[in-house]
Amino acid sequence: MSIHTPKTDKKITLGTIAGMKGIEPVTMVTAYDALFAQLFDGEVEMILVGDSLNMSFLGKEDTLSATMDQMIYHTQAVCNGAKHACIVFDMPFGSYITPETALRNAVRVYAQTCAQAVKIEGGKEKASTVKILSDNGIAVVAHIGLMPQHVRSEGGYKVRGKSEADIASLLEDALALEAAGAAIILVEGVLPEAAKQITEAVKVPTIGIGAGNATDGQVLVWSDMFGFFEAFKPKFVKRYCQGAKEVREGLEQYVNEVKSRAFPDGEHTY
Known about the structure:
The chain is globular. The protein starts with 13 loop residues before the first helix and ends in an 11-residue tail after the last helix. The chain has an 8-stranded parallel barrel, surrounded by 6 helices. By secondary structure, the chain is of the alpha/beta class. The protein contains 10 helices and 8 strands. The chain has helices at residues 14-20, 34-40, 53-56, 68-81, 99-112, 127-135, 164-180, 192-201, 222-225, 243-259; strands at residues 26-30, 46-49, 86-90, 117-121, 140-145, 184-188, 206-209, 217-220.
């Protein structure tokens, strides 16, 4: 059996990510526990502890009921597994309603986890929140475009950047968030031309999801990309393996061998 060797054993920082803009695309995946964080560590530059866990692993219809306690627990687990990747904490719905609330909760994230940044959804209206966080030494990944925490108020998941006016609004958001101190801008569910214009307009790196390939990097939810989450598959998701199918096949083999007493055999008995 060969031992897997990660591509890098260096600690990836936000400075590392900033230096990659325009030079090398940034890779980012989600993780929610130490086991998968360890598998991804050294392979991707960034790991997002996303509130997507609410849907992927708790079976909820959306992300809105995720809590600070829940997100901190999972981030602690990811930090235990990943020693090299830059880890981002996804601030849950309701945790950054005001700049002061955001600061209080983000301070808790930094105190109780090893996350290097927090992610918040919102456009220029969240610039004051980004500023108070960055002024107090907390790095922010700003999230614009399609925002899952707005799914109920917006009546579903709606692609952005379909008109010149909407592209102009997205550009205004990105520039305001950058000026407020955002370290990275995540662009979700935006038509490729709009995402390209955003990426060219800001000096900080952009990370895309469902936004074409002109952004400075990409992020996917691991259970989507590896075929474990089967409830639905967004158009932008590419499945790199059929995880659920492979697990079912392995489980079927195990059940059959137990039922027939083929397992455990002599090799697997003390």
